[in-house]
Every structure is written in structure tokens, then in C-alpha cells.
Write a structure and sequence with these properties.
CATH architecture of the largest domain: 3-Layer(aba) Sandwich
Number of helices: 8
Oligomer: single chain
Largest sheet: 5 strands, parallel
Order of helices and strands: HEHEHEEHEHEEEHEHEEHE
Keywords: Signal, Transferase
Radius of gyration: 31 Å
Strand order of the largest sheet: 1-6-5-2-4
CATH superfamily of the largest domain: Rhodanese-like domain
GO molecular function, one term: thiosulfate-cyanide sulfurtransferase activity
Protein name: Rhodanese-like protein
CATH topology of the largest domain: Oxidized Rhodanese, domain 1
Organism: Peptostreptococcus anaerobius
Shape: globular
Distance between the termini: 100 Å
Number of domains: 2
Pfam family, one: Rhodanese
Low-confidence stretches: 1-14, 19-28
């Protein structure tokens, strides 16, 4: 009887030793989970005024950049860089989401001195934007300024759908105008502007919306309109080449 009891005790001891060894082995083999490294925000890069001016003057190059004026709306309207949209710093932390599609594209910000645009640039990089530039302000470099308002394609189209446009000008070639365009739009390009002045409204406060293929021809027409004294001129920064307007 004692012999049987000893056998049972020995078997139990061997089993416990085996389980302990297995657990110890598993514990030794278990590797701690690798700690994920936090992704650091991209660095804001400085841009000289002369470099931004060259980009704006190059019709092809300017399409690779989104230029944002973060000054107040009244400052923007008084005179801004030709292809810049306006996103005031006071509401920038909320409004930047409108340009989230540019997270991996070149975004250039500017203001008067670089201070406000610097704050806006930090907001962008802290929210995943990877190519952000803070350019010399309008008080630091003598840019060629314009007074018409640039709109992204979606905002331009929404304004027209909401009935805000007193006149829509299609600055594309005649064949494309005849193919399809916005309802009641008139076809006036840079080359035919002088010959079509009679199509323009007499009221200089009329809201005039201009678009083309890429924003270049329409910007030229918009500039001519402001020279004639029109005060509410809107240019589609995204032309029909970049944005699918629902004609």
C-alpha cells in the first residue's frame, strides 16, 4: 500500500515538474510586443517670395500647388496672390478639412508677415499634411496682387446651384462651350473679351463667375473684369480638367 502511494506521489511530482518546465519555457519564448513608433509630423518648409512668384507665373507649375491666404477676408479681397484661395486663420482649425485631399500635395500658406501662416502651417502638419510651405508675406515681398476671388471647384459649382451667380462666363474654346456648359452661361475667353463687352451686366456689383479648363484663361478674364470695375468676380481655381462640373 505504501509502495502504491509512493508511486502516485512520484508521478504527481514528475507531472508538476513537467508543467512547470513547459510554462517556464513558454514564458522565456514569449517576446514582448514591439512598441510602435509614433509618426513625427512633417517639417514646415520656408519658401521665398520670389520662388512663389515664379510658381504662380508658370501655368503648368502652378497646378502642382495649392496656395492659401490665411489673412482676413477683407484683406484677401483688397489684394491677394493670383491663384490663392482664402482660409482665414481665425477659422482655419475647422476649415482646413476642406483641403484634406491635398495632404500629400504641395500646400503653400502666406499672410502679411509669416506669423499667421506659420500657425496655419503647424495645424496642417500636425494633422498629417506632408508638404507644407510657409511663404514670405505680402509685406515681405512685392507680389503681383489681384482682387477677384478664387474658389475650389466644389464651392464654385455650389454657388451657381444656389443661384448666387448673376452671370456665368465660360472662358473655354467655343467648341467645348457648345458641347456642354452651365445653363445660361456666355462664352467669353481672353481673346474675345473686347468683342463681347456688350454681354456684360451694367451693374458693376453683379456676381460674375468665370471658369475654363485649368483656371488660367478664367483668371485672365476675371482680371479684365476687375479692371472694368466689377467688384464681385469669382474664378474657378479648378477648371473642367481638374473638377467634374455637373453641367
Amino acid at each position: 500500500m505504501k509502495l502504491k502511494k509512493s508511486k502516485y506521489l512520484l508521478a504527481a511530482l514528475l507531472m508538476a515538474t513537467s508543467i512547470g518546465a513547459t510554462a517556464c519555457s513558454q514564458k522565456q519564448e514569449a517576446k514582448p510586443e514591439a512598441k510602435q513608433e509614433e509618426t513625427k509630423p512633417a517639417e514646415v518648409q520656408a519658401m521665398k517670395g520670389e520662388d512663389l512668384a515664379k510658381i504662380e507665373a508658370d501655368k503648368k507649375q502652378k497646378e502642382n500647388y495649392l496656395v492659401v491666404d490665411v489673412r482676413a477676408a477683407e484683406e484677401y479681397k483688397a489684394g491677394h496672390i493670383k491663384f490663392a484661395i482664402n482660409m482665414p486663420i481665425d477659422s482655419f482649425e475647422k476649415d482646413y478639412k476642406k483641403i484634406e485631399s491635398f495632404k500629400d500635395k504641395d500646400v503653400v500658406l502666406y499672410c502679411n508677415s509669416g506669423k499667421k501662416s506659420g500657425k496655419a502651417a503647424e495645424i496642417l502638419v500636425n494633422n498629417g499634411f506632408t508638404k507644407v510651405y510657409n511663404a514670405d508675406g505680402v509685406k515681405q515681398f512685392k507680389y503681383d496682387l489681384v482682387t477677384f476671388t478664387n474658389l475650389m471647384g466644389a464651392d464654385f459649382e455650389k454657388d451657381i446651384a444656389d443661384g448666387k451667380a448673376g452671370l456665368v462666363i465660360d472662358a473655354r474654346d467655343e467648341k467645348d462651350f457648345k458641347d456642354k456648359t452651365f445653363k445660361d452661361a456666355v462664352n467669353i475667353g481672353p481673346d474675345s473679351f473686347e468683342a463681347n463687352k456688350d454681354k456684360l451686366p451694367k451693374d458693376k456689383n453683379t456676381a460674375i463667375y468665370v471658369f475654363c479648363y485649368s483656371g488660367n484663361k478664367s483668371a485672365t478674364v476675371a482680371g479684365e473684369l476687375t479692371k472694368l470695375g466689377y467688384t464681385n468676380v469669382f474664378n474657378a481655381l479648378d477648371g473642367s480638367k481638374e473638377y467634374a462640373f455637373k453641367f
